[in-house]
């Protein structure tokens, strides 16, 4: 369990610091990422290159962002982390949100680890 917490915390710290290389170092080459909002998958990447492209695009959207872990639970093959998220937009978005607006969400992220790396990341909000 400590190994799982360690890799998850390392990934979240890199995410919060806009450290793309640090994030990539935590990922399995076959990483599957999904963002699920209101029960619908709105973003999905497969493989480390697709994930890296999304991560690079995402860094341009926010001037700051922070995922804070508020809970942690693990099963045999997965870990679930309760997350408080806050981000400040660096650009205007098509949905009407504008530069400087603050986004605050509560959610959870499910992680699966394979060969010591994150092989699945599913963000739920």
UniProtKB/TrEMBL annotation:
Pfam families: SnoaL_2 (PF12680). InterPro entries: NTF2-like_dom_sf, SnoaL-like. Transmembrane segments: none annotated. Residues 9-119 form the SnoaL-like domain. It comes from the Bacteria. Coiled coil: none annotated. Signal peptide: none annotated. This is Nuclear transport factor 2 family protein.
């Amino acid at each position: 369990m400590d190994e799982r917490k360690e890799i998850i915390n390392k990934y979240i710290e890199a995410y919060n610091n806009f450290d793309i290389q640090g994030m990539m170092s935590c990922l399995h080459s076959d990483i599957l990422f999904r963002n699920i909002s209101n029960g619908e998958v709105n973003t999905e990447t497969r493989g480390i290159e697709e994930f890296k492209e999304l991560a690079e695009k995402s860094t341009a959207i926010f001037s700051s962002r922070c995922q804070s872990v508020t809970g942690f639970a693990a099963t045999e093959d997965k870990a679930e982390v309760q997350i408080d998220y806050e981000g400040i937009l660096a650009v205007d978005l098509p949905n009407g949100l504008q530069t400087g607006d603050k986004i605050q969400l509560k959610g959870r992220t499910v992680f699966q680890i394979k060969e010591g790396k994150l092989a699945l990341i599913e963000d739920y909000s």
